[in-house]
Hints:
mainly alpha, two-stranded antiparallel sheet, 69% helix
Amino acid sequence: MEKKKAFKMPHLLWIMFGIILLSCLATYLIPAGKFATDANGSIIGTEFSYLGTQTPVSPWDALMLMKSGLNGAATIMFVVMISGATISVVLDTGAIDDLMNWAVYKMKDKGSNLLIILMMVLMAYLGGFGGTDALIAVVPIGIVFAKKLKLDPICALGVTTFAALVGFGTGPAQQATTQMLMGVTPYSGFFTRLLIMNFFLLVAVVMVLRYVKKIRKNPKASLMYSEGWDPEKEDNDVKEDEVLKDVHLSWRKIAVIILFIAQYIVIVMYNLLGGDSSLTFDFMIAVMIVTMILVGIVGGMSADQLGNSFAKGLASMAFVAFVIGMAKVISLILTNGNVIHTIVYVLTQPLMGLPKSFSSVGLTLIVSLINPIIPSATSKAAILVPIMKPVAEALGLQPNLTVVAYQMGDSFTNLISPLLGWMIGSCAMANVPYSKWLKWVFPKVMLFILLACIIIFILTTSGWTGVI
């Protein structure tokens, strides 16, 4: 009997082309319509009318819009590519690796709870400011911790990937692309979102510490006990001295880390101190390029090494940039076909009679449901923002509030997504079956989402605009 092949999600390129074709089909099937606009061109969400005739966009017309879409998204595309290139240079200096090894080695003989807290804080901030799936490489350190403290492999994931993904999902530096797509000043609302990240980090720490206390009291309460884990068993699969290294954190590495963090502060302060908002993207690119050069020089790279690292990082983000351009094409198809307003009208009708605070919560829940299917934050933003932006305008929601609502939905279901390589790879590395991980993390994800909805509700009712 022939074994059935497991379902595999198509490559994002074909997903995007599929969405383009569906968008074309929508212009044939969905009645064309438009919202009225005021003198400033803003949508009047209560005034909508159907055109009475269709204005379809054929697949060939869509291909002819590719150049316009790529041109329209060019600024965002280049900002994303240069940002990725700068992060690549930082990673290639080895500063992040040395910081991790230095901090972990120095903390390894401290009290276990303090050790867990400091490790999670470090991982969350790495995720929040420079998070990439490269942080999966830290999981072996978590495994050593767990073995040393006689904790199960779920704890190893708790102090590494769990903390990193919480920081990655809620961090103030992770939604600049979404802000740009929404027409919001990049990194605005930075300090509010930093506060939100630290709140969720605190909750995550409490969750892990409670689990640690539980399995210390009764090892059989561990979800991994049935998988053969026993704190009394001696396991020498991973040797501590092979993973934990006594690294000297040189002044060069410290300076690289300071420069990396400082670029975000400089970009944020530019707008807070009254910089020309029309030059924000110009300023961002200039700061990132200067940061990249300084990081390379201070990090001890040769000219060739710096150039190769920059080129590698640029290339790694090229496809993501192309996807953003394709998303702009989708927006043009729906706009030229006069169906985007009809879609928005239908989506917003159930929310129109509700207070804005509940409407913003609704956006968070919708993104939470979509997130596990498209775990890439940048790709998902490119797909959803063309729909979400006019929906927010129709509902009268502040753009930066919409970004936070999106971010809250984009955050926590990463922890249960079977399509996120970072998450699944971490489970495999720690020998934690996905079913066991799901059982442990799912209630926590639900609590995170509930807390996120409360935060969005408070921000909406308080009139937060994202200035700080």
